[in-house]
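Q: Here's a chain of 260 amino acids. Please give me its 3D structure as tokens.
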Amino acid sequence: GTTILVFLLLFQLILLWVANNKIPIRLPESISQIILHQAEEKGVKIQARNFWIQPDLSLAIDDFTAEVEGITGEVFTAERIEFQISPSHLIFLKISPQRFNLRGGKIFCPASVSQSGEKHVILEDLRIDLIRKGNWLTAPICRTRTGNFVVSLEGELPLNLLSIQNSLLNESEQQTETIAQSTRRALSILEKSVILAQEAGGGSVQIDANGDTSGGAELKLQAVLANHEVTTGVPNFQARTLEVFGDIQINKKGFVDKWS
């Protein structure tokens, strides 16, 4: 208890110094090690080139890599991650949703999980920008791709979506399934989805989320399959074979009300 209080006091002083001097500083090694140790206790090994505290009191991480205990090799990497700091939450690896930015993210499927038996990238060029505004989670841009298939999301979503996510995480922690088992299952499902997208010949999925007065949001989905360059006698010929449109209504609690 006393150690935690001393840590939080020291951390608060560091934040105050950074805010007053308007310059980023590297997170002290002792604090970085506490974060890494907490992650390792949860079965996740984290590596990063640098941890920074920025003048707006956000934490920035350069060249982030995550491995899961029981799975060989990294499952996720990112060129840079930034998020708002809550000193009392940081030590327990809880991220405040006030602002979150991710650049150059990649999700890998390890050889032990892959259907082909070889490690490969599932998703790449992952970019996420999220901002908390009142009861809304604003996404200026969330984008990723796999091969020549692109998925993007923009707009406003109910903040309660985060509460649903936290509930699911708490339920999984109470189950006997290890983090390695749940990660393998999630990566396997993701890999199968990616294979289906690639077999469709590439394309894109665009989701526009518009908040409504009830506190929910309407998601307008447009999918274009086989929208990519193909090798033919005509330079830069594009084949657009199928377009799909849909609407999904999410209520203020973050659950799907209807879809069409």
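Q: Can you summarize the key feature?
A: Residues 145 and 177 are 29 Å apart (CA to CA).
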